Structures are given as structure tokens and as C-alpha cells.
Amino acid sequence: MHPLITKVTDRIIARSKATREKYLSLIENHKSDKPHRARLAAANQAHTYAACPAMDKVELIGGRWPNIGIVTAFNDMLSAHQPFEKYPDIIKNAARSVGATAQVAGGVPAMCDGVTQGFEGMELSLFSRDVVALSTAIALSHDAFDAAICLGVCDKIVPGLVIGSLRFAHLPFVFCPAGPMVSGISNSEKAKTRQLFAEGKVGREALLESESKAYHDAGTCTFYGTANSNQMMMEMMGLHLPSSAFFNPNTPIRTALTKAAAIRAAHITQLGDEYIPIGKIVSEKAIVNAIVGLCATGGSTNHMLHLPAMAAAAGIIIDWQDFEEISEAVPLLARVYPNGGADVNHFHAAGGMAFLIRELINHGLVHKDVWTVAGFGLDKYTQEPFLDGDLAIWQEGPIKSGDEEVLRPFSNPFAPTGGLRLVKGNIGRGCVKISAVAKEHQEIKAHARVFNSQAQFHEAFKNGELDRDGVIVVKGQGPKAIGMPELHKLTPALGVLQDRGFKVALLTDGRMSGASGKILAAIHVTPEAKDGGAIAKIHDGDLIHIDANGIINALVDEKEWQNRAPIYEDVKENQSDFGRELFEPFRHHVSGAENGATIFNELLK
What we know:
By secondary structure, this protein is an alpha/beta fold. It has two domains: 3-182 and 217-396, no CATH class; 420-604, IlvD/EDD C-terminal domain-like (Glucose Oxidase, domain 1, 3-Layer(bba) Sandwich), CATH 3.50.30.80. The chain has helices spanning 3-15, 17-29, 42-49, 54-62, 87-97, 113-116, 125-140, 157-166, 187-198, 204-214, 226-236, 252-267, 278-281, 284-297, 303-313, 320-329, 344-349, 352-362, 454-462, 479-482, 491-499, 558-563, 584-589, and strands spanning 67-72, 101-107, 147-151, 173-176, 371-372, 375-376, 383-388, 391-396, 420-425, 428-433, 443-451, 470-474, 504-508, 520-526, 543-547, 551-554. It has an eight-stranded mixed β-sheet. A four-stranded parallel β-sheet has the order 2-1-3-4, sandwiched between helices. A hairpin with a 3-residue loop joins strand 15 and strand 16.
């Protein structure tokens, strides 16, 4: 193992000792050699199978067949989750073939940041993750299941499913994806049209035509944003079947993988000989492997929020310093938009997860001595599935990249260090997705222009007030203020300014989309403005220094900086209407960004 990976892992294990031991006791507390439904009283049990098909009812009443709960994020408005409509029947039939039953335990909400970007719904986006976690717990609260399959893909849904699932530490879980849509127009072409629209050079009709050609079919968006970073992490953590992330929906191999997920879930319950609960899989080493995967691929900055929250649900404590040190050790091996021109279909075709994991294992950058849903050892994830009739079988994956413009070996990385970096200074702590920013734009010293909202920024841009070098500061966007919305709508306008030859950057206590790139953006700044964070001390005209390799400083006289009072104005209209008033308890209780921006603060006590 690389010594820095070992050092960080050992530190996390030591830091988490007490909370991890407490968490693992949940597995012991629920040990049983009988189906979990057997502990329910007769009337309670009768409710669980009253509407079942007769063939399932017989086994649920008197048999020892394991029962698999399906937790689904299906809706037919969002392309990524629409394919899940047919999954329950596929899972049920596959489960019966190996002596198991399956039932839809419940649904979780699935919202799309692509729909809500720049609008009120985006202020509920991050909190939807914790709602998904709560919904997962409700779905499984009947205690009628011996394993579960989670159907989810996108930004907050998968982290929420993981958090909720981890609180049922004794149950095996298999995460089952839908896959990316087939490629449409290139992501760079889409971004160009957005920028032209921001400049007023094309109209809304041209913009809509471009967007419709990009988002055109069932499946995940094809860029390497948060949704596809989720899928990568599920493989790195051993919660998917090997190399199952990036096969397109509605194909024979995708159906075969869904069947295989059901069969595997049936085989790893307490009732069989190969019991693998989720609490055993999501260990300190698995969390480190997930961070390594993010750094090696230039994954979404959103996971610098999600992973601390997910880890906490398993009694594991991580922070951004862990990300920073791992990023120092891990080279960048993938270039997928916004880190490059390719999409995830190209990444998959070039060798995908099997090639990536093989490279990381061979060079001591990930822990292979971990449990996964496929069994013991991450080396199982150097395999990829093929069709054998209508079933999936696994064979060794490629040992050579099919396209080194997209996916490279360790010996020829795109960059010697990883794609995510910690930045810190007298303004606070934040994150930068360095892999998406050209080297010449990775550092800036320029005067601040301070805004309290995206709308204020766009008004100034339209009025021509920003045609100069500058650090755009958008404060009051943190989780306690307005739920920490993504500010992806700023990207086209900032791109225009940069292309006009100005040096520009963004500094905010909000988030940026996992698809955002090109512009230097120091985000997730904590403490946030509403918490009295120093970002609220910045005045128009202050000289700001941002270096993607570790710095966010206001170059203001130290004594003056210390004596300045932070300025924060509550935007009341952002806390009412459109359902936002229902989330006041979330805004009140949410933790800071580095602790996951989560309401589940009690998990690590």
C-alpha cells in the first residue's frame, strides 16, 4: 500500500474507534438464524403478505425463503429513474428462481438538480438526501426483510439510500443502477450553446433544441457529474456487482445484471452460508477506497459533502484533510466531461471501472482486503460482465486502456495528483475541483465583487458591470441559510467573462454542480456566512487570492480583518413558499459543510 493511503486509513480507524464499535454492535444485536419476519406476531405478519401472489404467500407464511425488500427511487419524469419501473418484476422472478421472495418495501423521492437549477426547488435539493435516508428507514421499518435491493442513481438519492441502509447494519444490501443514456450531442457542444445564450447570441429556441439533443433518452446524464460519480463510488465501495455501473438501460445485459443483483441478494442473507451485511462492507477501508476513486477520476465535489455524511452513518469520521492527503497520493487517470471531452459511455468503452480498479490495486492505492456484495476482495472488481444466454457471467476486464485520451494507466496519468483539493486560509475552508480547471486558470489574485444571490450576479452581468478581472463572491448560500443550492447557472456567464480574457473565479458557501468546470471555483466555504463565517467579512474591492493548490485568502490588513464584523442578511423569501418553510427544522439543525451538511449530527456521539 502507498504509505500515505495507509497513514490516512490508520488515522480514520483511530479517530473512529468508539463510534465504529458502537455501530458494529448493531449487527450483533440483530443476529438470527430465522427469517426476520418470524419475530413478528401473527397479525403483524399477515399484513405483510396479504396481497402477495399465492406462490409467494405460501413461502412467506411457513417457509424459510429469504424475503428481499426493494427500495425504489422510480418516477417516470426523470430519465435516470424511469427505467426502474420494470425492475421489481425482474427482481421478483429472479428471486423465485433461487428460492427467495421479493417485495417493494417503499419508495424514496428522486429530484433532479438539472430541473431545479437556478429555481426555488434547488434550495430543497441537498436536504432531499436526508429525506431519502429517512424514507429508506421507513421502507425497512416493517422488519419483514432479510436483505434489500436499492434502486437509485442520481445526486442525492444514492447517498441518501446509503445513509438509510447503513442504519440497518445487519441486512445485506445490493445497489442496482439503471445506467447512463446513450450518447447524444457532445457535452462541449452543449456548453458552448449555453454560453452563447448567456451572451444573447442565440435564442431560447436554439438553447432548448441543444438541451433536448443532450438529454434525449432513458438513463443518467452522460457527463461525469454527481450521479455518475455515485455509480463509480458504489463500485469502489463494493455495493454494486462488479462493473455494473455504466451499461445502458433497456439492454439485455442491463436486464441480466438486475437479475444477478436479485440472485446475489438472496445468497448473502443470514439464512445462507455467505452472510455479508452492509455494516461489514462499508468499513473505514471502503470509505478510503471511495475517496481514492473520486480523486483518480476527478469526481464530483458534492461527494466532499456526501461521503462524510455516509461515513458517519457507519460510525466512521472523515474530514477534508483526509481527502487532501489522498489526493496528493493519487494520480488523475480519467478525463470525462467536465474534466475532458468524453462522456461516461466513452469511459466505459475505454475500459471503465474494471481497468481503473486494476490500476489502483496494482499500485497500492486502494485496499483490496475488503468485503463486497460479490464476496471478499476488491480484486473481484477487475472483472466485467458478459451475457451467457439471458444471464450475466463475469470475466477478467481489460488490462490496457482502449483510449488513453479518456482513461490512462498509472504510468501515464493526466496529472500526478487527484482531481479534488482542499483550500483554506483566513476566509475559511473550502473545496476546488482542480481537474476541471486549466492550469493557467488555477490561481487568481483579483478584487472581490460581492453578491447575496445568483439573481444579483446575473443582473450585474447583464448590465456589463463585470467586464474586468474579479473574484465573484456569492455568500449566504450555505446549508443553514438557504439549504446550500448548487450555483451551476453561474457557469455560462463566468465562462463568457473568462473567454473575453478576464481572470475570474467564484468563491461561495454554496455548491456547484458536479458538471461544473472551466472556472476556478472555491466552494462549500465553511463556516458559512450565516454562521458568522469570514466569507461574510469580504467587501467589494477586497483583494482575494485563490490558488487551487490550497489557498483562499483575503489580502486585507490582518488587524482590520480581525476587527471586521461579518455581514449577513437573512433572505426571508428564500425560507418560505414552495415548500421551503417545511424545511426550517433542517436549516436549524444542519451541520457544517465539512461534516456533511447533514441533520443526522447525533450519529457520531
